[in-house]
Design brief:
The protein is mostly helical and about 140 residues long. It is built from 3 helices and no strands. It has helices at about 5-30, 60-90, 95-120.
Length: about 140
């Protein structure tokens, strides 16, 4: 019974050490860091080039919708790889063969339904409307 609490002690010590290091770094930064402000140094930095445009420029929301859809479908496609690798092993057991195929068909069906929904909403339309406010090309 004497060693049952050791994992908890290790967790508490690790959390305490982490918090102490963060606090020490913040205090050292406040004490030793430079305090001279310069308008040139406070400008946005873009890989050594002067800023091309204002960072407050508005983008068309379609870019964000397409980016989110891409990330969602990309992550969901990653979930198909383990299934594809294990499918041959799942076919060996007749109880799991039909279930594994049904799960994959259901998963791909949900993906197809999501694709159909965003297609129907017009999120994949690439025709750029130049009269809209805040396009990236304006």
């Amino acid at each position: 019974m004497g060693t049952d609490f050791l994992p908890y002690v290790a967790i508490v010590l690790t959390m305490g050490l982490s918090a102490g290091l963060v606090l020490a770094i913040l205090v050292l930064n406040a004490l030793l860091g430079p305090k001279r402000r310069n308008p040139v140094k406070e400008r946005p930095f873009e890989c050594g080039n002067p800023p091309a445009d204002s960072p407050r420029k508005r983008f068309n929301v379609k870019y964000y919708v397409v980016a989110i859809a891409f990330v969602a479908f990309d992550i969901e496609a990653v979930f198909l790889f383990p299934w594809a690798v294990m499918y041959r092993d799942l076919l060996k057991d007749p109880a799991f063969a039909g279930l594994a195929l049904a799960e994959a068909v259901l998963f791909i069906g949900v993906l197809a339904l999501g694709l159909w929904a965003i297609w129907r909403k017009g999120a994949l339309e690439w025709a750029f409307d130049r009269t809209s406010t805040g396009g990236a090309d304006e």
